[in-house]
Specification:
About 60% of the residues lie in helices and about 5% in strands. The protein has about 120 residues and is mainly alpha-helical. The chain has one domain. It has a two-stranded antiparallel sheet with strand order 1-2.
């Protein structure tokens, strides 16, 4: 009958005995807050990763704004000198027409076209 029952060996358990010493526990109590500060503090690793992500996003937005700025400068330059560019913008943006032209607009299926002079 001796071998029928499981007996717990001394020193076995969830935490091994070498980790139950005073020095290890004190070291853990001191090291854990330091580790949390290094990871999650105001100057921690997580904060740095978030800031680097934000910086790369802002650089991308700056590049997009610079590209749009160049396009607008080119359009402004074209509108200063080129009459065809002025006419194109007037026709597309402001729906202007020349005298004698007829513009037909089709709104949607089943709708009647409108005539404008």
């Amino acid at each position: 009958m001796e071998g029928r029952y499981y007996r717990k060996q001394p020193g076995s358990g969830l935490i091994p005995s070498r980790f139950r010493t005073k020095g290890f526990i004190i070291g853990g109590v001191i090291a854990l807050p330091i580790l949390f500060y290094i990871l999650f503090g105001s100057h921690g690793i997580v904060q740095r990763i978030q800031l680097e992500t934000r910086i790369s996003e802002l650089h991308r937005k700056i590049e997009e704004a610079e590209l749009e700025n160049e396009q607008l400068k080119a359009l402004a330059k074209a509108l200063d000198a080129d009459l065809k560019a002025i006419e194109k913008v007037a026709r597309e943006k402001y729906a202007m027409v020349r005298e004698g032209e007829t513009v037909y607009r089709i709104k949607s299926e089943g709708a009647r076209p409108t005539e404008r002079r």
